[in-house]
Amino acid sequence: MAPEGVNRPRLKEEFLKLVKISSESRAEKAMADYLKDAFEDIADEVICDGSSAKTNSNTDNLIIKIRGELTTPPLLLSAHLDTVAPGQNITVLQDGSVIKSDGATILGADCKSGIAIILEVMRSLKERGVRHGDMELLFTTCEEIGLIGAKSLDYSLIDSKLCYALDTCGVMKIINKAPSANKMTFRIHGKEAHAGLEPENGISAIKIAAKAVDSMTLGRIDHETTANIGKITGGTATNIVPNFAALEGEARSHDPEKLRRQTESMREAVKKAVNEYQPDDGGDLPCCEESITPEYERFTV
Asked: Is pLDDT of 118 > 70?
């Protein structure tokens, strides 16, 4: 049974409208514009924070402020505007109580369900005349590609010290902790050669990359730590020994020391695979360039 005051048909209808709005990362303007209109009769102040200059999105983070009657501390509700790809021209199917896409795209429930909930909460409070303190609503861009909108937010525009971020699966669940994460890119350089005429004169960057990945410990490392290589690119043609390959991956852990060790083990796996190749000509190939960037830090509430 829905909580008192929640208009379930309206909530569903709103969700269906939202998922049909294309809003892949860095292309969230249509969603932001829709929310500005949706909150027009509720908002006391609408702020665009200018973050698009940093995020390269076609819109800014959106902040909506709603004044309350009580002197309680302000409360922030947050969701992100963007979805993963493919998220354009979504066709929605309903199978009984299940809402899904037609399979050609994602549905966009992450995070359109959170946005729909925030809309319904604020509409219900107004309709029922519920007295509350000041409310702030934050809708960020580029969450799916590394929390870029949140990282670029002008936090001086936010007064709240307490926030609920509606961005998880399931109901009756509160997430109160998250891990730190490191993003990694390894760019392996080999030596090209004709694969049919003189393969022995080439150095396959893809072969080195494959050997590196094969030697890594990935997946669920322990109850606090995970690691993954999620993207491999390289090569130009089947008849050319590839002189380049790139590995992109991540490691996450709630324990900083475990994160450091896992990151270092992945670095060592690539370094070892490169160093084990002994070029006949004594040159400086193969070699590897690496980039390891902290994505975000752990927190516990």
From this structure: yes
3-state secondary structure 64-118: EEECCCCCCCCEEEEEECCECCCCCCCCEEEECCEEEECCCCCCCHHHHHHHHHH
Count of all residues that appear for the chain in the document: 301
d(CA 174, CA 151): 22
pLDDT at residue 280, as a whole number: 59
One of 60, 136, 143, 144 is an active-site residue; which one?
143
- Asked about 44 being catalytic, the answer comes back as no
Question: 220-260: per-residue pLDDT in tens?
Answer: 999 999 999 999 999 999 999 999 999 999 999 999 999 99
Integer Cα distance of 164 and 168 in angstroms: 11
Distance of alpha carbon 136 from alpha carbon 158, whole angstroms: 8
Per-residue buried b or exposed e for 85-103, using 16+ beta carbons within 10 Å of the residue's own CB: eebeebebeeeeeebebee
Q: pTM for the full model?
A: 0.81
Q: Say which of 14, 24, 60, 82 is annotated catalytic.
A: 82
Write the pLDDT tens digit of every residue in 124-174: 999 999 999 999 999 999 999 989 999 999 999 999 999 999 998 777 888
- Known catalytic residue: 143? yes
252 in Cβ contact with 225 (< 8 Å)? yes
